[in-house]
Amino acid sequence: MPTEIEIRRAVETDRDALGRYGGKLMRQHHEFDPQRFITVAKPEAGYGHFLSTQLNEKNVLVLVAVLEARVVGYIFAGLEDMSWKDLRGPCGYIHDVYVDESARGHGVGEKLVAAALAWCKESGMERTVLSSAARNESAQRFFARLGFRPTMVEMTREA
């Protein structure tokens, strides 16, 4: 795989790719725990629409990774105010990272995360927070390699 990976801000014409990967992310999480994670009939359309509404938001960053003129991944991050309910100060928050299976293991995810971390730091955030599905151990190892540490455990109980 060529090493020339372009990281750039997502634009409206990336909507289908964002939806495709957001749909895969949604399905993956739903498979991990169908009681906790939602699914919808057409997640690609819904997630693509949602992410396209975030493209011009002031405190939001949506980046795509492009390899050989093809979007192969994305990251969705935001800036969060201090949260009394979460007991944390202001921070950057990485909501989503997804890399196409064909592009994994070639530094795409690292470049996406590095770009989001740089944006968070440039925006004045001293820390960046993210969460990972409990069963997504490969993602947790990936984030740990990038310097993230576990700080919370979400627990869910159905009525």
Question: What do you see in this structure?
Answer:
There is one protein chain. By secondary structure, this protein is of the alpha+beta class. It has one domain: Gcn5-related N-acetyltransferase (GNAT) (Aminopeptidase), CATH 3.40.630.30. Helix content is 34%, strand content 22%. It has four helices and five strands, in the order βααβββαβα. The protein has helices at residues 15-32, 43-54, 108-122, 137-145, and strands at residues 6-9, 60-67, 70-80, 91-99, 128-130. A five-stranded mixed sheet has the order 1-2-3-4-5, sandwiched between helices. A hairpin with a 2-residue loop joins strand 2 (60-67) and strand 3. Helix 1 (15-32) packs across helix 2 (43-54). The N and C termini lie far apart (48 Å). The model has no long low-confidence stretch (mean pLDDT 96).
Total individual domains: 1
Summarize the biggest pleated sheet.
5 strands, mixed
| CATH architectural name | 3-Layer(aba) Sandwich
CATH superfamily: Gcn5-related N-acetyltransferase (GNAT)
**Helix fraction bin:** 25-40%
CATH class: Alpha Beta
Question: Taking Cα atoms only, what radius of gyration do you get, to the nearest Å?
Answer: 16 Å
Mean pLDDT: 96
Order of strands, widest sheet: 1-2-3-4-5
Helical region count?
4
Low-confidence spans: pLDDT under 50, at least 5 residues? none
Q: Kindly report the CATH topology.
A: Aminopeptidase
What is the beta-strand fraction?
15-25%
Give the terminus-to-terminus CA distance: 48 Å
By secondary-structure content and strand pairing, the structural class works out as: alpha+beta
Give the SSE string. Answer: EHHEEEHEH
Mass-distribution shape: globular
